[in-house]
Amino acid sequence: MDCRDTRPLLADHAAGKLDEVRTAAVEAHLQGCADCQRLAASEDALNAALARLPRPPAPARLTARLEDMVAAAEKPERVRARRAPFRASTWLTPFASACVAAALVVVVTRATTPAGPGPGALVTEAVNDHLRVVTSTRPIEIESGGIHQVKPWFTGRLEFAPRVTFSGDDDFPLQGGSIGYFVDRKAAVFQFKRRLHAITLLVFPASGLTWPSGPTKQVGRLAISENVSRGFSILLWQDDSLGYALVSDVNMHDLETLAGKINEP
Fold first, then answer.
1. Nearest CA to 241 among 206, 202, 204?
2. Structural domain boundaries of the chain?
3. What does the angle CA 134 – CA 256 – CA 216 come to, to the nearest 5 degrees?
4. How many of the other CB atoms lie within 10 Å of CB of 74?
5. Residue 27 pLDDT > 80
6. 21 within 8 A of 12, measured Cβ to Cβ
7. Residues with Cβ within 8 Å of residue 130, at least 6 apart in sequence
8. Of 138, 183, 171, 150, whose CA–CA distance to 35 is shortest?
């Protein structure tokens, strides 16, 4: 299963409603996908919030009104028989309480759900995506015969055209490309090498993301945000409507050199 197959099943998975086969398939996918792991964690958090919500009693006026509506819809003899052993409030009150709890869930969710991933989340996402690529059993879907062979392969597989013209050279040979995800959107993934080090370039739509606001370094024609996380060097930048993330365990100078070549007109 891929992300597109898995994500519609996450709510039922969190609620334990899937059969054994689909449960195993979802859990197998979650082991290798940080994006879907985050979505699954959100479902778990929502279920936990629902379990913790208080169940306030329904307002007396609402309970009485619902009782009257039920009574009006029933035959008089059935109403009298029903009221003898119990009152409708024995089930209407929990029902109305559940409605109130559901409304509280909406309020809590809207108040606590962030508008989008913050700048620190982009760095974390870039590193996770790089690790997912280098540990994949199939990191490259199109072998490199140069950028003019790799780049056209993305046509029809993405809703945008990745602007990358660097074909690789002796210092940074281009290995190939594949389709990936960055946060909540599809991304073009290019794989380069620096000696024995893998370098991942992700290209994705930039809209809706919160970009780092700290100091930037001018590399070629673009201002680039430099970051270090978990021993990896990460460069983030925007070029018109596209975002770029360059990640590797090489030193920052080598990564800057490659970024400069990628950004050459």
1. 206
2. 3-52, 60-112, 119-262
3. 110
4. 14
5. yes
6. no
7. 198, 200, 232, 247, 248
8. 183
- Asked if pLDDT for residue 109 goes beyond 60, the answer is no
Task: Give the Å distances, CA to CA, from 170 to 1, 98, 167, 195, 210.
Answer: 37, 65, 10, 9, 35
Q: Is the pLDDT of residue 96 over 80?
A: no
Identity of the residue numbered 31: Q
**Region of poorest pLDDT, from 110-114, 216-220, 241-245:** 110-114
Q: 119-262: which CATH topology? A: Phosphorylase Kinase; domain 1 (3.30.200)
Is the confidence at residue 254, as pLDDT, over 90? yes
**What are the DSSP calls for the chain, one per residue?**
--HHHHGGGHHHHHTT-S-HHHHHHHHHHHHT-HHHHHHHHHHHHHHHHHHHS--PPPPHHHHHHHHHHHHHHS-HHHHHHHHTT--THHHHHHHHHHHHHHHHHHHHHHHHS-SS--HHHHHHHHHHHHHHHHT-S---SEE-S-HHHHHHHTBTTBSS-------B-SSSBEEEEEEEEETTEEEEEEEEEETTEEEEEEEEE-TT-----S--EEETTEEEEEEEETTEEEEEEEETTEEEEEEESS-HHHHHHHHHHHT--
- pLDDT of residue 2 exceeding 50, the answer is yes
